[in-house]
Amino acid sequence: MNNTMKLAILYEDEYILCVVKPNNVVVHHAHHSRNVAEEDSLLQMITQQLGEKMYPIHRLDRKTSGIMLLAKETRFVAQFQELFTNNEIQKTYHGIVRGHAPESKIIDSPVKGRDANVHKDAETHLFTMKTATINIPVKPYDSSRYSLVKLEPKTGRLHQLRIHMNKISHPLIGDPKYGDKNHNTMFVENFGCENLFLHAYSLEFIHPFSKKKLFIKADYPKDWYVVLEKVFQMY
């Protein structure tokens, strides 16, 4: 399927390429990965589409969709990575979560690092954009409640947003690891949506080479529009 998928290009200059990563696509295969033969990574898809090799500047979970920044040469990577390290890049994610989330909240709660045993400081700023109640029962209730949220991670820990939303009892819809199985099933059965509803929506930063201020945003995947219309009465 990925072979025919054309990636949307959001921004390009001589230093970087910015594309929309689809759900369920890895950025690049780890050397020990068993899935290399079965599916293309984002980097492989870019090479097939453009005939050029690109270098990822940051990470996105396989299950998360949205904005991905890549460098055209390895020597450009460090300057852009510094923006992330020094918190000089504004990252905004959108998510759909269970329940009516608070209007705004700072979630400051350590998250396990990649080495799994050490907890590292992690901070997420949450803003609720819209809430909805729909007449579809999900155990143990006879209706179900959801929120469309904006999430701004101030740190970049593995699965940070997914863990933080679960921690405040508003897990992301479609999250197989930290989510609510009953609500995930309801979305599959009623809306045909089984992807994780977490989308890297925008990046805002000063370009380290051109010094231009950039604001780049990525349109939602198709299944978001189904849910925004049917649950939140938008569009």
What's the end-to-end separation, in Å? 28 Å
Question: What is the number of beta strands?
Answer: 12
> DSSP strand (E) fraction?
25-35%
- The number of helical elements comes to 5
Helix content range:
10-25%
Report the uncertain regions: none
Task: Give me the Rg, rounded.
Answer: 18 Å
Structural class: alpha+beta
List keywords for this structure.
12 strands, globular, alpha+beta, 235 residues, two-stranded antiparallel ribbon, ten-stranded mixed sheet
Describe it for me?
With 235 residues, this protein is an alpha+beta fold. The protein is 21% helix and 31% strand. It has five helices and twelve strands. It has helices spanning 42-50, 74-85, 160-167, 181-191, 222-230, and strands spanning 9-12, 16-21, 55-56, 65-71, 89-98, 104-108, 111-112, 119-120, 123-134, 144-153, 198-206, 213-217. Strands 1, 2, 3, 4, 5, 6, 9, 10, 11 and 12 form a ten-stranded mixed beta sheet that branches. Strand 1 and strand 2 form a beta hairpin. The longest helix is centred in the middle third of the chain and has 12 residues, at 74-85. The mean pLDDT is 92.
Write the layout of secondary structure elements.
Layout: E1 9-12, E2 16-21, H1 42-50, E3 55-56, E4 65-71, H2 74-85, E5 89-98, E6 104-108, E7 111-112, E8 119-120, E9 123-134, E10 144-153, H3 160-167, H4 181-191, E11 198-206, E12 213-217, H5 222-230
Parallel strand pairs: 4-11
Antiparallel strand pairs: 1-2, 2-4, 3-4, 5-10, 5-11, 6-9, 7-8, 9-10, 11-12
